[in-house]
Automatic annotation (TrEMBL):
Keyword Hydrolase applies: yes
Annotated keywords: Hydrolase
Superkingdom of origin: Bacteria
GO molecular function: hydrolase activity
Protein family per UniProt: Belongs to the HAD-like hydrolase superfamily.
PANTHER family: 4-NITROPHENYLPHOSPHATASE-RELATED, HALOACID DEHALOGENASE-LIKE HYDROLASE DOMAIN-CONTAINING PROTEIN 2
Protein name: HAD-IIA family hydrolase
InterPro entries: HAD-like_sf, HAD-SF_hydro_IIA, HAD_sf
NCBIfam families: HAD-SF-IIA
């Protein structure tokens, strides 16, 4: 038996581009998750977006036709809060972001302040304020440690691309000379924190994603087998542009229905 033939005991899966696409259900995603529940296979749905809380995302997914428990959703905001709680418990932070991030930090006991904070934490928001960015620059310049939830440079909207965390982080870096520490994908730290969340081991877990440059590389670096689906960003042709490869490329998560315990080596 090769490693790819070994049973799968748990799954991590990206959300956008894998389970939903622009708030519409990816056909077969509901059947895939239903099979995981029926077989009692632990899973966690991951997203780099830090805007919404898990409860908000649960409601969004339910509207799309997916019933996913709140505690089965893992965001870059939660991963960032977990990281900060480990590094400096009960610390202080100046936050540029929305409720997904501020709620996660409040829940670990952080105080949010602009008065000599331990960290400046940058997350996703649709209303970046020049005043807030200026405050962040000044605090980083004075010695606050610079953390960002994820490096995504742009995000989607109905009207086209929007500047996202990575773009605003670049602005702060250009002004201060300080690079942020990114917690979210492709940092495998987010994968490892997700594995701990469900008590899973990388050897028996599969990461499913739609992007080679975030989902697949972070899953690979965390020691997991990886599946690329072509319902999102990356395509079968674009796989060849990278020096690493997923364990498998499939059209959609619908292809996993009926074979969730052994998705490889049939």
């Amino acid at each position: 038996m090769t490693p790819d033939d070994e049973p799968i005991l748990s799954y991590l899966t990206d959300m956008d581009g894998v389970l939903v696409h622009e708030d519409h259900l990816v056909p077969g995603a509901d059947d895939f998750l239903a099979e995981l529940r029926d077989k009692q296979i632990p899973f966690l749905v991951l997203t780099n977006n830090s805007i919404r809380t898990p409860r908000d995302l649960q409601a969004r997914l339910r509207h799309s036709g997916l019933d996913i428990p709140e505690d089965a959703i893992w965001t870059s905001a939660l991963a960032t809060a977990t990281f900060l709680d480990d590094q400096r418990p009960n610390g202080t932070a100046y936050v540029v972001g929305e409720s997904g991030l501020t709620t996660a930090l409040h829940e670990i006991g952080y105080v949010l302040t602009d008065s000599d904070p331990d960290y400046v934490v940058l997350g996703e928001t649709r209303t970046y304020s020049f005043e807030a960015i200026t405050t962040a620059i000044r605090l980083v310049e004075r010695g606050a440690r610079f953390i960002a939830t994820n490096p995504d440079a742009t995000g989607p909207s109905r009207d086209g691309l929007l500047p996202a965390t990575g773009s605003v982080a670049a602005l702060i870096t250009r002004a201060t000379g300080k690079d942020p520490y990114y917690v979210g994908k492709p940092n495998p730290l987010m994968m490892r924190s997700a594995l701990r969340r469900i008590g899973a081991h990388s050897q028996s877990t599969v990461m499913i994603g739609d992007r080679m440059d975030t989902d697949v590389v972070s899953g690979l670096e965390a020691g997991m087998r990886t599946i690329l689906v072509t319902t999102g960003i990356s395509t079968r042709n674009s796989v060849e542009q990278y020096p690493y490869r997923p364990t498998a490329v499939i059209d959609s998560v619908a292809d996993l229905v009926g074979r969730t315990s052994r998705p490889f080596g049939d």
